[in-house]
Design a protein that fits this description.
The structure is a single chain. The chain has helices at residues 113-116, 178-181, and strands at 59-61, 71-79, 91-96, 120-124, 130-136, 150-155, 162-163, 168-169, 190-191, 194-196, 199-203, 206-207. The chain is mainly beta. The strands form three sheets. Strands 1, 2, 5, 10, 11 and 12 form a six-stranded mixed beta sheet that branches. A four-stranded antiparallel beta sheet has the order 4-3-6-7, with no helix packed on it. The relative contact order is 0.24. It has two helices and twelve strands, in the order E-E-E-H-E-E-E-E-E-H-E-E-E-E.
Length: 215
């Protein structure tokens, strides 16, 4: 696994085309896309980014990054099914809870924003297949039992959107065992987190189609 290295100047660079949380979507599913992944409730949220996918870049900063809490830089590379060739132009949608373990809303959310909240972001991988999110490490659900996690959905060219395994955190007392997690969709989502200059850094590489139904 690659080790993420960041400096103070790295994580103050904000994306040029971040998605607003309230504007209407300008992205639509393509009826010609090959259907993969089986049933995928909530995958429609990936289309709710109100700027065209074509102008997204590989970096997004979620709205909580400026707030108090454990700052997290989450990065990685998305590969083609061979696990070696970088995959450019892949849309990755991520959302998670706030520090209290809830999906917060500001009011006026539409679509899946009503359930996913406003702590969500979209990126489009660059020519090297790279992506990066700036956010806070999420809190676990207040009722307990489930590990803290970040939800993720992929949309690659020519295919419908599909889930991959959630981002999880090594050392979480509620982390399921490897056998309980089964075959990881998109690859292992358990993050090894390192702290550098007061910021948490973690890397997850993703393989398109790995353990995805009908791929």
């Amino acid at each position: 696994m690659k080790t993420a290295v960041f400096t103070l100047t790295t994580y103050v660079l904000f994306p040029l085309f971040a998605c607003s949380q309230s504007s209407p979507s300008v992205n639509k599913p393509d009826a010609a896309d090959t259907r993969v992944g089986g049933r995928c409730e909530g995958c429609e949220a990936i289309y709710e980014c109100p700027v065209p996918f074509s102008v997204l870049n590989e970096v997004d900063t979620l709205p909580d990054f400026s707030l108090n809490g454990p700052k997290l830089v989450l990065s990685g590379t998305i590969y083609q099914r061979d696990g070696k060739t970088p995959a450019p132009g892949v849309i990755l949608y991520a959302y998670h809870t706030d520090q209290s373990g809830r999906y917060p809303t500001m009011g006026g959310e539409q679509g899946w924003g009503k359930r996913h909240g406003y702590l969500r972001g979209w990126v489009r991988t660059n020519q090297k297949g790279e992506y990066r999110f700036y956010t806070l490490r999420p809190g676990a659900y207040p009722e307990g039992g489930a590990p803290a996690h970040i939800h993720a959905t992929l949309k690659e060219p020519g295919k419908t959107a599909y889930w991959i395994d959630e981002y999880l955190f090594a050392g979480d007392p509620n982390l399921p065992s490897a056998s309980q997690r089964g075959k990881p969709k998109g690859g292992d989502g358990v993050l090894q987190v390192n702290e550098q200059n007061g910021v948490l850094a973690a890397t997850r590489d993703i393989i398109l189609g790995l353990n995805i139904d009908d791929y």
